[in-house]
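Sanity check record (used in CI):
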Amino acid sequence: MAAEWVKFCYSWLLLWFCIRASESRNTRRSLDNDLLQPYTQGHGPAHSHRHVRDCQALINDNATYESHTPHGRSSQPVAESKVFVTDVEKGTRWVLGHMTVVHDPLKMVSVLEPGGPGGCEMKLRVSVEDTAKAAGCLYAQNGGFFKTKSGECLGNVVSSGRLVQDSNGVQNAQFGIRRDGTLVFGYLSQKDVLDQSNPFVQLVSGVIWLLRDRKIFINESLQAECSETEETGSLRYFADVVSARTAVGHDEEGRLILFQIDGQTEKRGMNLWQVAEFLKDNGVVNAINLDGGGSSTYVVNGSLASYPSDHCASDSRWRCSREVSTVLCVHQPLCQPANCSEHGECVDGRCRCEKGWRGAACDTLVCQPPACGPHSLCTASGCICDAGWRGTNCSEACLPGFYGDGCTKTCSCFNNGSCDPVNGRCVCPPGFHGDTCEKACPLGFFGASCAQECRCDDLCPCDPQTGSCNTTLPVDTNYTLHRAGRCLAKQIFTSWRQEEESHREQPYLTERSWLVITLVLTCLLLASLIISCHQVCHRSVTSRFPERKDYSYVPLRDINGAPSRAAETRKGSLGVEDSDSQDEIWSPSHSGRS
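Expected output for N-acetylglucosamine-1-phosphodiester alpha-N-acetylglucosaminidase:
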């Protein structure tokens, strides 16, 4: 932070030294001791433009200014400057001055700000020599009024087509050049100053309209601009006192006249009545008075050609030109605008336009909207068509199948779909949909964008384009329907079967249980059958040997001395034999002893 503060202080100190050095080198600075100002406080009258209009003679009707269109004289020299010496008051006083005739003021005269563009905004005061030298003026003289203390430019200022400042309707005499070359002298309303139908390209304010249509107009001007006091007396005194004077006017042919005389207030020079009479005698039609006194300066090729009335600040024995505000500059022919609207080159005061541009200012395209049509843009290269349009004047739409800028992109729409010529979006015919119209309408729908539903009996499909129910569907559609029908029928039958089974009475035992029971019963039946067969066989044997019924089988061991065991054995055997077999039971009635 400290380093930045030191740097800031150093910069300001360096700037102060530069200013002091510049002031020390300017040894030709004047004392501003020959002041000739029309107003003491402020500048210009306090009344409105309507007051000026109402106070003028009826012969002028409502017009408060005069306009004149000059004759073009491009073959003439840029300007002619003459030095004159004339006597005033019957030879008792002689006056030295300069009169410059400019043949084409539109191209050869400019209102310059002090020091160049931006000088009024910065409130600069610069000598006529320095401003003229920087701008390359052949001839130059001081222009409008300014505040001697602050350097503020006064009145309206338009420089090379740029409105530098607007006086807000202050009614002082004005000189201006419009875009078409018309010269304007007189009183302008604020609306006149800001008019853009034929705007001012140069404009400067003076005080007192000297000549109006070859007639001295000073008395009327004093009434219009009010008789306010000023530093050297009243406005009447400002008009009557002899001093150095500067004026601007024009002659019958429209040539601009720059007028400057040397003098010193109350000692030598001319009053405004004498200036007006001199200009009238020299063929001037309209003229206004500009800043005079010590400000009156005339310069040729950047060198002082007049005799200033201000004393030099460095040495009062000598005279120095005053640093002033605006300057009227006569220069080599310039184009209007000087840069030819950035579409051409200025050659000898004429714009040489680039290809595709035309007009005196190269501000008009060769092609215009009526020629290009509503679907294009005019450029230096010709008509540039909007997307979706073609042709020399962009009046033809893209051919079918193409779209975009220059109609160079190919559409990708199927089934005879058309595409938008601007963005290429497909517009599908009835019966199709999709980004590229590749899809047919689903069954049951038809029409544009497949938005309509079929109204056929039994929900039958319809023609996808017309919606007709009496239609033959394509092979692919029929095949699809056939497959879909089989699938649907299968699903329906399956559904029915499942529904029937769900409504049946459920058995108490499962199939597996029934199978087990069936097997068990089968086994039991087989066992019963075997037993029955065995019994049948036994009965058959018994019937063939009846004698065996009366005898019983007694083992020998029981006979040989084991009666008890034999008895037990017999008892047990009889028990078993009774239950198991009839072969071991012998009845005594059937024994062999019989």
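The longest strand covers residues 79-88. If this sentence no longer matches the regenerated tokens, the check is flagged for review.
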